[in-house]
Amino acid sequence: MAKSWNFVFVLVWLSAILGAGIHLFSKGFLLTRIAQTDFSSCVRYEDIRCGTGGGDNDGDGGSCKVESILRDVNQSAGICMPRKGKVILLVIDALRYDFGEFDASLKDPLPYQNGLPVLEELRNRFPDRTRRLKFVADPPTTTLQRLKAMTTGSLPTFIDIGSNFASPEINEDNVVDQWKRHNLSTIFLGDSTWTELFPGRFKRKYDYPSFNIHDLDTVDSAIERHLPKEIGKSDWDVIVAHFLGVDHCGHRYGPLHGEMQRKLKEMNDVIRNVTEQMDDETTLVIIGDHGMTQTGDHGGESSDEVNALFFMYSKGTPLLSEEYDEYNKTIQQIDLHHLDALAWVVYGLLLLQIAVLAFSPLLIYVLPKRKEVMSVLQSDRNVAPEIFRQLRSNFNSRNPSAAADEIPVVCGLATAYSSVFIGVGIFLTILMSLLLGSHGTTGLILSLVITICYGIISSILQYENSTNLLSCLQPTMTTLLSWIILMQFGFYATAHQPTMSQIDWNAAFVGRTWHYDNNNVISAILVLLNTFSVTFVLSTLFPLIIFTPFCVYTMWPSLAQKIYQKSGGGGKPKAPKSSRKTDAGNVEYRSVTVNKPDDEEAGDEESTSGGRKAIDFDVTKGEINLYENEKLFVGTVFKTGCQLLLIQGVRIFCAMFACTMHCRHLMVWKIFAPRFIYEGIGSYIAFIGLNLGFLLLLRVHAAVNALITRINKAR
After folding, report:
1. Which helix (H) or strand (E) holds 588?
2. b/e map of 313-322 (b: 16 or more CB within 10 Å)?
3. Does this model's pTM top 0.70?
4. pLDDT at 191 over 80
5. What structural domains and CATH numbers belong to the chain?
């Protein structure tokens, strides 16, 4: 048993090597943005001096400054112009461009159409003071990345998308810090992502958590309650209000639902109230950080996702006439910064299950001796011992000689290994079902049913073609490839796609609440388990590939007799008839001799399968064969785990090769990069599952060995 830990070391080492290769490739292939921590500086307009005398040389200091600025281009680029007004920035999350369009000819508009008529009214009344543009985002179109792009002017990366749960503070030059450096007071209301990105930058803040997508109104209602009061005050220069209701409505219902019409009408009322309350020195800017698909998702680079709305309204000062820029109807988001100068019970049961597996993993019942059974039955509540007492009585009555020897009766020994893994599989299935929800559980169950059917059929075929224990244990390459393919099938069957917009963020909140548990690590783990549920389950249960033939013929021993008769012997041992008994209740039992594990046997005549010849095994003894042939058994499981690791490694290598060959292809960031990201994360999940499965096997094997040793000592 001690040598088995060498297998663990090698398996972990192989997983680490493959994981390191994936990490190295991702560091080279996926772009990583390096933050520039230097801050730009400028000279205030009031501090500019004319000439060399340290003051204004002419009576008209204003004209002197203008001439001095125009004379030196380099100097003009570093001058901060004086404050001329105030800005109200309304960020409406997921405000797609066509949400802000108005078409009076539509007789039966969709819920998202003509939802903001106030914008069209402002354009018609004040054409020289309004401007509507298409606000083009860069993928990935997630809120955190869009806020970084708009405030810093930098491009997001696919790596940054993992920070959507943990919003790190921005330490590079950005427009919010420039406001603070120039003594401009900023008030914030809404999505707490802003306060996580810019802590300590706001004079007053009213921030609220943003990831409860089922809540459409809490954040928006709070903003509507505080915004009029803040506009009425005079101690601010910039107000930023980030509304979440439209985005959450899209995630929960989609843009075609009636709730979207309600939320857009609510935003229309907010905009109307702001325009009526703000003074003539204030400019209103309305933007969407990204759009949404027709299903309400976002994160990718489709037209609906990247095209957001930009609308500006200056109440007192006319804007630059459109005649100077009549063909430019779009603006990049990275240019914006220039304009602004279940319940906890689920997890408790999970911890309990882990504790049970660690201390007592076996699902086996050992019938106590006759006097011990009588003491148990005094309570008249435990039915199982009474059943086994009757079974023992029947057995001893048919075998008088065995009664004196007090042969122990053990229920479940023939399926000692597979029963544990099946129990773990059932528990993992329940957990994954909670994370997947109703839309993904059907695919999960379908994947597992197909896996079970395939396992039974392949085990029967494998036993028919085997001539010894080694060939019966070792799964074929077809079986291993099918196991990997079933993982891939399960990914799609559980309603997932290798695109960023298809990530199911709902799983992050199963059994948790923001007020008592806002751990981002747990959120990320739950989302990963939701996305790669079938991969994790099948990789953890991979030893079942080896157990299945013995489990099947233990449950249906008549299959072995039929195969033996069909093959005419064929090298397959036949179970002795005298060893098999059936009582009146159709309960089948048999007397077997459990040999010591092969590493305790001695003798030069022993073959590779233990103390008996490799061909001499009875498949109807079930998994007792595995215990008796420990070296062959553990070695085969280790070999199978390594083969699955290598096959998964070939898959991720193909994804890497495709990215390398098509690195300059137009669709590399649309198809190949997301595919590589999903394959890479799926490989990590599979590596972890394979190692956990092998460790669980060793724990079960140690428990079986301890049980048999204890029974032998008690006799």
Report:
1. strand 588-590
2. bbbeeeeeee
3. no
4. yes
5. 4-27+347-364+412-714 (no CATH), 85-164+174-316 (3.40.720.10)
